[in-house]
Amino acid sequence: MEQELHTLKDMRGTWDPKQPGFSVSGHLSRSGGPGTKTIRGEPVNRGDETSTGLVTTLTEKWTAEVSWTYSYNRSPVEAIIKPTGEYKKWIPPASTKQGTAGGTISFNVELRDKKTGGKPKNTTATFQFKLLETSKEPGSCMNSPWNDTEPDLKILKDDNAGLEKVDPNGQGARSKPKLTECPITVSCFDGGAHGRLQVVAELSDGPPITAILQEDDRTEVGLPYDEDGNHIADAWEQDKGVSGQSGEVDDEQAPPVTAPAATA
After folding, report:
1. What pTM was computed for the model?
2. Residues 6+ apart with CB under 8 A from 30
3. Sign, CA torsion 186/100/230/131
4. Which of 44, 130, 166, 205 would suit a FRET pair with 17, their CA atoms being 20 to 30 Å apart?
5. Buried-exposed string 139-163: b where 16+ CB fall within 10 A, e elsewhere
6. Mind listing the pLDDT tens digit for each residue in 1-27?
7. CA 169 vs CA 141, 151, 159, 245: distances in Å
8. What share of the chain is helix, strand, coil (3-state, %, to 5)?
9. Rounded to an integer, what distance in angstroms lies between the CA atom of residue 183 and that of residue 43?
10. Residue 240: what are its φ and ψ, rounded to 5°?
């Protein structure tokens, strides 16, 4: 039965080359027994192709139904995330006052016609912004001077005039509708902050598309820029001469000792 599903048996659909994509659905219904049977459909997410499947396992006398949808989207429009500053040199700034951001980092998201490279003539979007796996280190320097565990990165309404709605925890936001571009500013509350920014453009005349970073086509923007994945800004590591080391490294045998200040 797995083989039957993987060959997309009982599925029908058509594709018009003049259209940006297509979608087909299938349905399988089988019964039998006694014994155990498994019907499995593996999800697929490959480039413009997406599919969703359902896994069903039943014992004894069984009846199983499985539905499957396969879609392909080749939109003539793409969404690009463009840094508005020196993204790769940004180091998360610590807050000096509880509840107040120590600094920000900004980007601009733009719709672009794949053929012309300019703005699309008839397509607009509503942009959905999400911060993913945001750190929640205590204080403003990972453990000092206070113990709150609020997200270290937030989207704030006051810093983003183009937003229509912002989640209470600052981890998600929605732009105003019918836009071809939208700026986004992320506020930082901890010197050890890290997370990722994702943007989805809900198109006025097509399915949603995930925005890509202009520099390397990634669909999630690491905050800060952190190519070695140790949650420490590469710019800070380069400045300190410790690039490529794990965030867990501690070469000191003992904490540094500071002489007490002289008294009059």
Report:
1. 0.68
2. 1, 37, 39, 63, 64
3. negative
4. 44
5. bbeeeeeeeeeebbbbbeeebbebb
6. 333 434 444 555 555 555 555 566 666
7. 20, 8, 15, 32
8. 5, 40, 55
9. 33
10. -95, -5
Q: Is 198 helix (H, G, I), strand (E, B) or coil?
A: strand
How far apart are the C-alpha atoms of 210 and 111, rounded to whole Å?
11
Single-letter amino acid, residue 201:
A
The CA–CA distances, whole Å, from 89 to 46, 92, 235 equal 32, 10, 5
Per residue in 49-69, pLDDT (tens digit) is: 555 555 555 555 656 666 666
Distance set, CA 5 to CA 15, 46, 216 (Å): 21, 19, 36
Which two structure tokens, joined as six digits, stand for 121? Answer: 């003539």
The token pair that represents 160 in the structure block: 């983003």
Residue 169 CA to its chain's centroid (Å): 16
